């Protein structure tokens, strides 16, 4: 059975870049790696409905915190079988966002902390009721919110297909989400967390998260 490793962080943190570097590092060690990004836009009806809602469609859906959380959760529910299959066939399954993303954004939209009711609701919904695989390691890419916002805006200006949605444009929401992420990581929510900065050495991180025993949670700067 392979390891399920997740990269989390606010929009514009650099998760995609870090994911590519980790995959390259593992490939050099001849490890079989598959990479999956959530939400699964253009593949999952639930993800596409959420994306459309965040761009002003489907009435007041985007204003409902719980409706949006359910759409993102259902995207993962219908990916669970594929995740288990991937774990049975690969050394590593690397996810760009997972359950913690839903927990962080839902709590932030409700102005709750990491130990609030929203986070527990997401945990019970996705891990308990939907039976999603629990990560072995969750990596928080901890980048200043201002820097992340600059990156997201730059990405939008360079690629018209990557227009920022309502969440990405809300600086206050991004700040609150970052704080919730910090609380989740500090408590090793759901599984072990690693906290890394924008200058993390991807080769060292790749070795750390693959080789460390599952009970050795730690924070890396």
TrEMBL record:
Q: What is its EC number?
A: 2.7.4.9
Among InterPro entries, the record links this protein to: P-loop_NTPase, Thymidylate_kin-like_dom, Thymidylate_kin_CS, Thymidylate_kinase
Q: Identify the GO cellular component terms for this protein.
A: cytosol
Q: Which top-level enzyme class is recorded in the Swiss-Prot or TrEMBL entry?
A: transferase
Give the source's domain of life in one word. Answer: Bacteria
Q: Name one GO molecular function term.
A: ATP binding
Q: Print the keywords alphabetically.
A: ATP-binding, Kinase, Nucleotide biosynthesis, Nucleotide-binding, Transferase
GO BP annotations of the record are: dTDP biosynthetic process; dTTP biosynthetic process; dUDP biosynthetic process
Query: What's the catalysed reaction?
Result: dTMP + ATP = dTDP + ADP
One Pfam family of this chain: Thymidylate_kin
Please verify whether the record's keywords include Transmembrane: no
- CDD domains documented for this protein: TMPK
> Which residues belong to any copy of the Thymidylate kinase-like domain?
7-161
Q: Which HAMAP family match?
A: Thymidylate_kinase
Which family does the UniProt entry place this protein in? Belongs to the thymidylate kinase family.
Q: What is this protein's function per UniProt?
A: Phosphorylation of dTMP to form dTDP in both de novo and salvage pathways of dTTP synthesis.
- Protein name in the entry: Thymidylate kinase
Q: Which gene encodes it?
A: tmk
